[in-house]
Amino acid sequence: MQKVIEYEVSYDVVATIEYTGEENPGEYYFRIMRHWVDLVFDDDEDEAFATVNEKGEIEIESYLTGYVRDEEASAIGKMMEEILKNITTT
After folding, report:
1. Residue 73 in domain
2. 32 in any annotated domain
3. In sequence order, which residues have a C-beta less than 8 Å from that of residue 82 and are 6 or more positions away?
4. β-pair partners for 73
């Protein structure tokens, strides 16, 4: 599963988010590739993982850089909803 989103921080960014799988039970990993449209900054790559807490809420954390932007977290949250829905229906 892969999702591409475009958002603006101080410059436009296109982020491609790819679900890479469940490594540890309950930890769902995602690869984030950021491209700065105006070529102001070099492209960068990050990893994030999502878990579901005891309240059933999805929590997202960066694995490499320490940050996941709000737009990226929102996209990962939507991807997680689909993943969890598919797990419960199979």
Report:
1. no
2. yes
3. 1
4. none
Residue 29 is part of which domain span? Answer: 7-17+24-48
Q: What are phi and psi of 36, to 5 degrees?
A: -85, 110
**Neighbour count for residue 30 (Cβ, 10 Å):** 25
pLDDT digits (tens, 9 = 90+) for 28-86: 999 999 988 877 778 889 999 999 999 999 999 998 888 899 999 999 999 999 999 88
CA–CA dist 67, 88 (Å, integer): 29
Question: How many structural domains does the chain have?
Answer: 1
Q: What tokens were used for 56? A: 């059933």
CB 83 within 8 A of CB 7: no
In a domain, 34, yes or no: yes
- Please check whether residue 31 lies inside any domain of the structure: yes
